[in-house]
Amino acid sequence: MILECSYCGLTGPSEEVELDSYNQGFWCGDCDSYTYFDPSKAHKFTLLLETKSNLPNTAPVVSSDIKFKKRLSCFRYPGGKSKMIPIIYSKIRREQRKQLIGAYAGGASAELALLEAGVFEKLVLNDYDFGIYALYWTIKHAPYDLIYRLQSSSSPTVKDYFHAQKIIKQDYPNCNILDAAWYTLIVNRLAYSGIYKANPLGGKNGKTSDLLSRWNPKGLIKRINEIHDLSDRITVLNEDACNLIEEYYWHPETTIFVDPPFVQKGEDLYRCYYKKQDHIDLCVLLESLHSGMPGADIIVTYDDDPLIRDLYYIPETETIHRYYSI
Fold first, then answer.
1. Which residue in 106, 127, 198, 256 could disulfide with 192, CB within 3.0 to 4.6 Å?
2. Concatenated DSSP letters for 148-191?
């Protein structure tokens, strides 16, 4: 039998390749990549590139049999994925719906919506930013402590905002996990576009009504309770994303959602941003895992930057036009 590698195109007799023990495919003797005998059974690798549009409502409309709750997250984030949920859902195979891994949780709009809708049985929320991790950990394990603060505290002031921002910039010195969650929530809700480096809404000397325009304790409590109701199906982690991806890639019936920091303006938007080498390392990891062994499906979302187009060779790539303010 003559076999052809789906990656490098090398052809040769079956005697010259390494067959897997389940007789589902083989490893190429030249590039060491794995090819399925039946391509329909192959695990998937999808790259969604988000191109900025100056017009709102430009994201493609994708029909779905599920109505998603797009506003479960307590976070506000530039490039948040709430409008992308139907598109992401359309890329998920039924065979890979036992567990969803959110390697870069951030606002986790897509991950939480997919879990709440029953698309996945379990969800892993991971973020290397301690404040983001702290908020999810608190919602899962101690939601009523956070709710009590929202109910009993007076509305935050500009002074409170800058105090919380200072704590975050100093990497949460002497903070317990509840304090870290609280400071993270204050800054995210009161900052321009939720960016931790930004000035507060309305400016340093602005109106209180502008500052508090996105501070809605009742609404936040509702979201906290809704997420907590799902908490027995959620695992919250504070790990390096690449290490996490490599660990969970081998889990059966799993989809890994990879939403790394933007290439453009990443340093201005995130505490845990990526430099060029970090983006390269992530690409090498994802493509090596996908081409080298059967495993989890991978869905990656990125801003449409020449670096990413030059790096990624293997995944099925689709360009999505989106409106966002940064």
1. 198
2. HHHHHSPPP-HHHHHHHHHHHHTT-TT--HHHHHHHHHHHHHHB
Structural domain including 216 reads 131-223
Is there a domain that residue 228 lies in? no
Token readout for 203 is: 């400016």
68 and 53 in one domain? yes
Amino acid at position 221, single letter: I
The tens digit of pLDDT for each residue in 23-65 reads 899 999 899 999 999 999 999 999 999 998 766 555 566 767 8
Pair of tokens at residue 38: 């039946």
Same domain flag for 135 and 124: no
**Taking residues 109-138, what's their average pLDDT?**
98
User: CA nearest 207: which of 188, 190, 183, 187?
Assistant: 190
Query: What's the half-sphere exposure (Cβ side, CA atoms, 13 Å) at 7?
Result: 21
**244-301: pLDDT as tens digits:** 999 999 999 999 999 999 998 888 888 999 999 999 999 999 999 999 999 999 999 9
> Which contacts qualify for 263-267: CB closer than 8 Å, 24 or more apart?
263/302, 263/303, 263/305, 263/307, 263/308, 264/303, 264/305, 265/326
Judge whether 55 lies within some domain.
Answer: yes
How confident is the model over 62-118, as pLDDT tens digits? 767 888 999 999 998 776 788 899 999 999 999 999 999 999 999 999 999 999 999
Domain count, the chain: 3
Residue 321 lies in a domain: yes
**Widest CA span of the chain, in angstroms?**
76
